[in-house]
Task: structure prediction
Amino acid sequence: MASEEIEPWQGRGSLTRRILAVNIVALVLMAGSLFYLDNFRVRLIEERRAQAEGEAQIAAAAINAAPRRARQALIETLGKRSGDRLRLFDNTGEQLLDSWATGPRTYGFDGRADEPWDNEGARWVDRLAERLVGANVPDPFTDAGDRAKDWPELQSVMGGATVASRVWLAPDRTLIVTAAAAVNLERTRFVLSVGNSRDVTRLVRAERFRLAIIVLGTLFLSIALSLFLARTIVTPLRRLAQAAVRVRLGRSRDVIVPRLPDRNDEIGMLARAVSDMTQALRERIDATETFAADVAHELKNPLASMASAVESLGKTSDPAITAQLHAILSEDVRRLDRSVTDISELSRLDGELSRTRFETIDVVAMLETVVAARDLRRGADTPVVSFDKPQGRMRVMGDEPRLVRAVENLIDNAVSFSAAGAGVAVSTGRTHGSISIYVDDSGPGVPPERREAIFRRFHSERPEDAFARHSGLGLAIAKTIVEAMGGSIGVEDPPSGTGARFAIRLPVA
Result:
């Protein structure tokens, strides 16, 4: 039997792990927003550099316009308002003025190791995020003081550039932005601003904290949803698999397959299907055991009769008794042959019908053929079988040879209960989307309390002279065939009020 191909990923790991993996993949993609944060940080730094360059040029213009005596007070005021440290250098690199010389310090950092744990933790997160995204980390900041040669941006402006800036990393991992600009057109004075852009670090950390909260919240939610899915999907499937294994191991009687009546999804459908399948398997096992016992019983009776006849043959020399014993043996042999044939057919029916491809059957033409064939081989003392042919066509889906066998079994049953001068009538009808086949006899009829029992295997209630010709399986075979074709079979009250009516109903094709 060809097996369905399975993708390689479908056979790896349990469903719980795969559910978790699918949800965590989404979280990993969300965590990729760290790269967005790095771009956000880079844009902020560029904006701060541009801002620092503009402020340095404004400060240079203001100093150039101010009187010499007012320049110290001016750079102190500008530094206090901007939060930067302003310095003025001449063209030889000598520092002339410093906003911190007489004014307040506008920023500070010392990088001590005994800082609060939250600050140190924030810096550890900064380093981790920078490594994850491969960020360009600025050089460590060292205040070069009044040495102009140690300020690269100042050297650029002294070399002819209009304005220059640079970003540094402070000991507390905040950013230092330095910018230099020429004070006048002769470039005999140069201003240097040094500012601590803590707001950049603060904004990036705030966004990273918000992202971490979202990722962690989504992580816990995904895990909870994954466990919920595992509980609602994997756990019932595991219970069904365990029940199926126990059934396979032969302990189906002890297994209660959960039906999950409160679930209307595919899991519930699967649970009820497995439960019904298990119940059908139990019924099939019971039927097999009963059938085996019935077969042994039915074969034992004629064998006992034959053994008795054979034993009696050895003890008598009377020709009349000998002939009678031979007749008994012949009758028992025919009975055994009939039983073995019917048993063999009944045991094959289920399997063969399950593999048979049904085709359209013309019921009227089939019944005409069956009745005509019986009329050709009818004996002088056999009841006449007639067929009331209807107008139009009646079609059903099924296996025509098997359906013929079912109809013939009903006719044989009717003939065995009908007197020689009586007749058996075959007719058809159409009701509520189904085709009916009726077989009416003129026998004693079937009491309502026995109309179900007569379709059981080896159940037989007929004249004594008919036992050798019938195994008690004819009606059981007919029932098996009809039900395999999606129909039903039963006994009804005949229209004439006497005899019995057997009815087969099959869906219209």
Observations:
- The chain is about 55% helix and 15% strand.
